[in-house]
Amino acid sequence: MYFYTYVINNMSDKEATSIQSYLGFLIHGLYVQGDGFDIDNSCLVESKSGELVGPMPVVWLCPVNIDQAAVAQQYECPMYKTSKRAGVLASTGHSTNFILRIQLNTVENPDFWVRRGVAVLLQSD
Asked: pTM for the complete prediction?
C-alpha cells in the first residue's frame, strides 16, 4: 500500500472539514517550511523573501497499490509534528516527531529541496 498525494488547489480549510472522502483522507491546516507552494501550478517554489514557514493547501492522501504510483518528478517531502524535527528514536528507526513522506510536484530536481531541508509541518512555531 502506498499513499499518493494530491494537492487540492481550490479548497479552503473550512470546505475540507465539511467533506467526507470515501477514498483516502484530506489534511488541512498544514505548513510548509523552507520553500513556498505555487497553488496555480500545484508545485514547490522558492519561498518569498524573509518567509520561513508558509501555509500549505489542502492535501488528499489516496491509497493506491505501489505499481499504480505516478512517475512525475516529485519531492518526497517529510512531514513532522513540529519544526524541531527531533524526537525520541522509535523502534522503526524514525524520530517520534516524523509522521510520513508526502509527494509534492516540483519543476526543480528533488535534490534541490533536500538540500534546502524542505518539510511539511503540522504546526508553526
From this structure: 0.81
